[in-house]
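User: Batch of two.

Assistant: Item 1 of 2:
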Amino acid sequence: MNKYINASLFEKKDSLLQFKHLIKQKNIELKLKFDPHRSVSDLLKEKSDFIDLILSCCWQHFLGTHAEQLSLCAVGGYGRRELFPHSDIDIIILLDSDDTAPYQEALSSLFTFLWDIGLKPGHSVRTIDECVSVALDDQTIITSLTEISLITGNVALYDALKLRITPDKIWPSDQFFAAKMEEQRLRYAKFHDTAYNLEPNIKEGPGGLRDMQIIAWVFKRHYNSSTLKELIKYDFLPESEYTELIAARDVLWRIRYALHLLTDRAEDRLVFDYQRDLAHQFGFCAGHHNQDVEQFMQFYFKTVQNIERLNEMLLQLFNERFVTGETACKVTPINDKFIAINGYLEAVNESVFEQHPLALLEVFLILQLNPTLTGIRATTLRLIRKNLHLIDTAFRENKTANHLFMEIFRRPRGLTHELRRMNRYGVLSAYLPCFANIVARMQYDLFHIYTVDEHTLFVIRNLRRFSLTEHIAEFPLCNSVFLLIAKPELLYVAALFHDIAKGQNGDHSALGENIARNFCVQHSISAHDTHLITWLVRSHLIMSVTAQRKDISDPDVIHEFAQHVGSVEYLNHLYLLTVADIRATNPELWNAWKDSLLKELYSATHKALRRGLQSPAALADRLRENKQEAKAEFIKLGLSEDMIDSAWQHTSDDYFLRYSAEEIAWHTMAIASSKESDLPLVLLHPKTQHGSAEVFVYAKDQGPIFSISTATLDQLGLTILDARIMTTQDNYVLNSFQVLEQSGEPINESFRASHICTALRNNLILGEVKGHINIHRRSKSRQAQHFPISTSIQFLSDPLNRHTVIELITTDHAGLLSKIGRAFINQHVNLLSAKITTIGSRAEDMFYITDQQLQPITDPDKQNKIREEMLKMLERD
């Protein structure tokens, strides 16, 4: 095909179409040549060479006599000869003078033609002086110029630029290195300093292709080298590690090439939409419904883990050579096995780990004990990797090794850093083979955005933050509770094992409990502490489930939970683990509502445990206390007892048990100041103690109040978090809805609150919802398309036989709660309360119901009718 690219193309009337056809045919040819199991390096170069020919031909045609006066150069990935199917084609045109008038029109015609044939190049036009000037102030420009290559034109001009941008002229190696390190630090921060996101960026993410480019940029600039192979020549890598580095780069290149072809654009994110197709392309096809994707992503994560490790080693060695200088090494003795060189821990000789295998753990303890140390020196990292085989069964059963491992957990600082290093260098999975099962294991769902091992380390990091004064403002209660933890290491160990059995068949909490117990026995942890750790592993989900899916305003729910927990000691540990766990699952899932629910459950359970489970305070006493407390506040505000009693005439005892004094206060003030003719009364408290807004409805029980209320709130763009439904014996309803804006933010503007109240009151008076619910307002997220949610409706019994619980799991959509409300009305179901949980597009809602006589619904036939009615309503548009 290349032989057809010449000046004669421009002699044809349809030259533009001819060029477009050639480009299309070349792309098809390269696509057919692509094999996911073979290196794409030749394809990248072939594409670059082809674009060279196209540009050279166009250059000669449009520039004419000026073609040899100026230089046409490639930069960026094109300059490196690494053009993927949809890579940017970045070019720079070097001018021989500031006067562009003679060829301005020619350049304009060239760029227009290149865009018309579909190349869409990114271009700049500069003199050499201009190039140097902009490069002085911008390290990204000097980086781009470092990779410049001549396509065609004035060779002397190109060579002159190369001479002007050498490290002895601008951006010396130490300054360039520092700039690239800062760039990498900022780039890592965008990805939360982890490569193990479930939708990683193959180019920009930690351990991605940009890490490879950082290595190449710094090395090639200092040594003026044309190839990374010279890393061996300059003694940065042995041939085996160089081969490992290139093999890892080749994997990422193949995945990126496939990703570009699959999406037909310059896509660098491994999002859910493409993971299964890529898994099949790369040969991962067997197993259960998600095993293909999980295996492919594990393959990817282990690849970037290798690049991360080699990147760390090489940049450390570059720092020694380019910045500190090998002759300026500062050596500090540490002990008989290790010294520190310029702040990095170094083994005293190559046989240290062979002679003292336990030093494979000791090295991390030393880093904890010496906070001035920066890390482990590259040569010692190689020794650690080389000697991992020494961590065998005998090593794991060695009591001194066990003591060293536990000592790392007992240190007051550095635990998270050292566990991350141990994981990155392979020591953690060598010492705990059960941990190897979760390394780079993705959790294919909408909730977890990190691999299991990364999530686990984030949980431990979160727990550590609860002990640090600089993080008190984030979670003051957690910091206060943490002060009560006698042995924080037990909490950290529980966190290490809480998801250790993910990916195994069975209940991961129960399986993890057994694995944790074996660990405790081997590490001589006392029976009391072992029971605490194993209980935490087994029960680590129960507090989250109780807070989000049960009615924690119900004293019996609190009593049942308190019985399961058993003691304040266990409650303190479980609360901290639960908060740390939820926040490490997905930062976007944590909000003020979840925070307040867990605080409320912790506080109520703490009180119940203090009273004693065998003799809880009588409900009558609690009822009297709550009423007296609320009444005392109202009298202070000037309300007479008659006004208070009048406001409470339609409330039940259950109302005073399920609402806080603050909530009762503002309800009562509003009811007391209203008349019967003012009903329905609709109020909005913009920010409650839960961090959400409360919409309160007080009205005569006439019509589908719950259905109209939920449909209206949904129509107004609000997310309903919780609903409490109360109907008095004389047929008044006191309904409250905890809501947030769909963005997760509270309702801040007063006009917005007023509009919500007016719209809801008007609809309640009308007896229907005016207008249509915007069904696109809560459309499925892109990720949710890959996690179909089957509707499940289960009927659960109440241990005290007061009501029946319906658990609904389905795809969240606009009008969902309104449909359920209609189904209940049609089946003459009395709704007491609802717990609304929405994660992404998954709704997990609990409804507490009775029949019209306030009795639980236990008849299977009646339950089936309710289920069928709910399903029928859910199917409606």
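Item 2 of 2:
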Amino acid sequence: MSAPSRPDPDALLAALRRDEARARRGRLKIFFGMCPGVGKTYAMLRAAQRELLDGVDLVVGIVETHGRAETEALLAGLPVVPRKIILHRGAELSELDLEAILARRPKLVLVDEFAHTNAPGSRHPKRYQDVIELLDAGLDVYTTLNVQHLESRADAVRQITGATVHETVPDSVFELADQIELIDLPPESLLERLREGKVYLGDRAAAAAQGFFKDAHLTALRELALRFVAERVDKRLRELRATGSPQTVWRSGERLLVAVGPSPFSTQLVRWTRRMAAAQGAAWIAVSVESSRPLDAESLRRLEKNLALARELGAEVVVTHDDDIVAALVRVALQNNATQIVVGQSRSPRWLDLLRGGSLVQRLLRRGGPIDIYVVPAERAAENPGTWLDFHPAASSPAGEYAEVAAVLVALTVAGLLIAPYAGYLAIGLLYLLAVIALSLRVGRWPVLAAGVASALTWNFLFIPPLYTFVIAKLEDGMMFGTYFVVALVSGQLTARIRAAERHERLREERATALLHLTQALGAARTLDEAVFAALRQADTLFRASTAVLVGHDSTGDPAPHFAGSFYLSEKERGVADWAWRNRKKAGRFTDTLPAAEGFYLPLVRDERAVGVFVIRVAPEDTLTLAQRDLAESFASQLALVVERESLRAAGEREKLLAESDRLHRALLDGVSHELKTPLAVLAAATEALATADDGCRGELTAEIRTATRRLNLLVNNLLDQTRLESGALRPRLDWCDAHDLVNAAVEGVRDSLDAHPFETAIPDDLPLFRADTALMEQVIANLLLNAAHHTPPGTPIFLAAGIEPARDRVFFTVADRGPGLPAAMRERLFQKFQRGDAARAGGLGLGLSIIRGFVVAQGGEIVAGENPGGGAVFTVYLPYAPHGKVPAE
């Protein structure tokens, strides 16, 4: 009968996080296949039709039928959200209308082609990011995906087919799926569909048959898809088993477990298990059991080397705590559904095996139940004899524990001598037994054993007749002595074992608690900086060490230290970090690579790509136990997830910026071409007409040419001014200015545009001089007047005022009109590039107010847009003002 096992804290934590996340978001179902044409979209639509019959509120977000009649027929009756049309380089592209779906809020959304790249200008660069937003909004999603679009399988697909896959989905996104439905089709059937034109049409089908759709390619892709789904199902099964207390293994698939210790023979054992796993096509686990007895430095080095070899050969490494090796191996085997346990042949003396209750293999056979046990003999040519599994290194208890035992026994002996005349030797024996049991709660196994032997002999010598001899005269006294001796030893051993189990349970709880606190901190962090800071502070406390994180940057390709680190990396330490980054392997102290380094370097790896390095530096006299290093690797895995999440977010932001830049680029080109076309057409027509015009018409034509030329000049100047502002080349030349002169010059330059509007000014005659750039301020006032003239109906008044605000030491210029006015939400947006008012007339690039703000800010001022009482808009320019007498002499 197999031994009961405790739930794995790591598995419980993972299940808790998964359930919490699923409770907050919608459910994702992926219809998964080996390649195009197997029927993923068809299966998704059939499932949708069944859901519709069950009354589920669903919509078709986007489905690509590729002209397949049977697929298009399944769309009948399904509500479809119209696609969003995006203009890109003169072409109309249709994409998923995410905003419309979120506004509609159905229960279920159908989104085809999970790995699709959206058109520039979309809300997200990738369609899987659209799906994530739908899930976060609480909507269920059905989607489709081929195995070649998985990030971790893209290289394998390229090696199989020779085709490079550019559209991929990160495996971490695929893990969001609540359900995977594998759509499988034999290669022969798929090739038949291809010949019938049910996959591709025309020349495309012939090209596919000669390239991607070869029988060997399809068979390999089918195996890849089947293995991937099988691995996911196996992982899910192990998670479900780990959250409970499994009593037996389920032979749904073979899985090997090998016990790895510090013995040099473990290297041979690991290689043997790898060969056996490869022959069976099975996964395998390498388990190290850490007892309460610390290993010496050499044994710890050998153990790390053996575990590193297991990792390199493809094993999943598990480190657990227990003083009972057999119980630990069976527990891990049950939690991971391992059907076979591989151990080495015991080389312990037979008498020691008898004391332990049998050899390691015998105990595994008794407790393993249906688990197969493989015993591998050691090679005789090995240079260093020893046991296969050195799980019991010699370790002595502290001298203080022996001193405590001696003090208790001396005190009891003195007390026993005092009460012997009254209590009898049997009562004193019970006191000794009680003392041994009490000592087992405080001291180790060997001090308890010493206490049992010493107390039994003392009791016999001083209290059992005949006194002061080790002779026992009566049979019942001999039986009592023997019973006492056995009870003392057994109770001490059992109590020590319970204490050890409690200690290991506490270590597992501490590990789970540490990971829980870490995930909570990382989940609450809003930015990467907050997440790294929280993780490093927890690591500092947990490992009693200084830590650092180096994060990779896409721009340089090299990792850079994060500012939150408490460990400063010298040039030498940076070299170790770079090696760990490039090779995606551990390095530094406690490893065989650059062991002279101060820190222990763990690469942050996601999908076989390094995204950073986690560094722990403990004091030279301290060390990290194997369990602590395993916990550090868990920390590194969590940090890698956070860094990858930030990288995905940053990539999305970059795509948005590129899309916005592309939009602005198109807007600028469209605006410039339109603005140039009109005056150029006027110039061409007027110039052509001048040759045949009479004297009366020539004046009008000349005026049109002058107006068109002025418009062209204004356009070119605006573009040049915007370029100067963005490049930082604008340097204002401040000098003493007169408000009357500035206004007169600005009004004179825009006189023609103001002719259709009543125009008034209000400038005090005694307005003092102020410092400003004359040319810039003249252009600011002129542009504000032009803006008012162009965007207000003819005949409406325009008003300009200037003055001083003594309370705030600033001069102001105000331009007010009686036009349509400015809504509050529009006022700040108007000062951005290429922005125009909602009621603005056609024409113009939307640069005027942006240039005005740039000119004003360059002079240390500000511009404010507001509502004119009675209707219309008000623009006020403020500049710093200092009276002439306070200005220092130049």
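The CA atoms of residues 599 and 617 lie 4 Å apart.
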